[in-house]
Amino acid sequence: MLTKSQIEEYNEVGAIVVADVLTDAEIRRLRAVTDDLVQQASGLTTHNDVYDLEDSHTPDNPRVRRIKATHLRHPEYARLMRHPKIIGVLADLWGPDIRFDTAKLNMKSAGYGAPVEWHQDWAFYPHTNDNLAAVGVMMDDMEMANGPLMIIAGSHRGPTFDHHADGTFCGAMDPTNRDVDYASAIPLLGKAGAITVHHVRAVHGSAPNVSDRDRRLLLFQYRAADAWPLLGFPGGIEAYKALMVAGEHREPRLAPAPVRMPLPPATKQGSLYENQKGMRNRYFDTAGARTPEPVK
Fold this sequence. Notes:
This protein is an alpha+beta fold and 296 residues long. It has helices spanning 4-13, 24-39, 75-80, 84-94, 237-241, 272-277, 283-286; strands spanning 15-18, 51-53, 64-68, 98-108, 116-119, 132-138, 150-151, 164-165, 168-169, 186-187, 195-199, 204-206, 215-224, 244-246.
């Protein structure tokens, strides 16, 4: 699936965009399923185990910013867990033994989609090694105006930064610490049907959607089969083995990687957005946006 230059780019930057992974028909089906699920949020007054709601949501006008554990919500999402082209990309990066973790759909509706503050996925779920990545399926064209995923190039080779506020895990970096040069961020742009792949330690975030176009990114989290979570697996070892999507189950492999544990746990479990809103300092509330160079 990947060329030598794409693999080198991933190792250097910490992220790549791979075009034309899903067909137009596959994207149409995903959009139809998603539209139906958003409508099912009608009547809700608060977040639940399925939906994270926009601040502007009302029971009569449903506005959803995240659908949680999407692989459990509809077979169309679950089917993509094992999509041969997605698995092929990951196999080119790690080898044949690949384990799924979870999925979510981050939605930025036209004109009001919420930002996601700068963070590293590694801060949420450190493992015995860092062969982990998130695959983002572009359900819509990703452009600068509609809040694409942005990456700090090379940050996956650096430290694990503090994601705490007032001593509690909040899932975001304090921009006043100036841990990285946020102005150097690279947007991951592309057409619907493309995928993004970003390394678990890469610093990333996304601005609000200020355009008249929706921006829906379906995110699947994967790991090499020999990367085991340091926080354990509540469902037990057999459930963990059942998450294999390609190749064979492997025993854990230890590799050097800087770890900060996400403890004490976040105050508002289940809502990244609500925990990030509680920060004193938020980048996307105050910072002007430079137009970064795209990764295509």
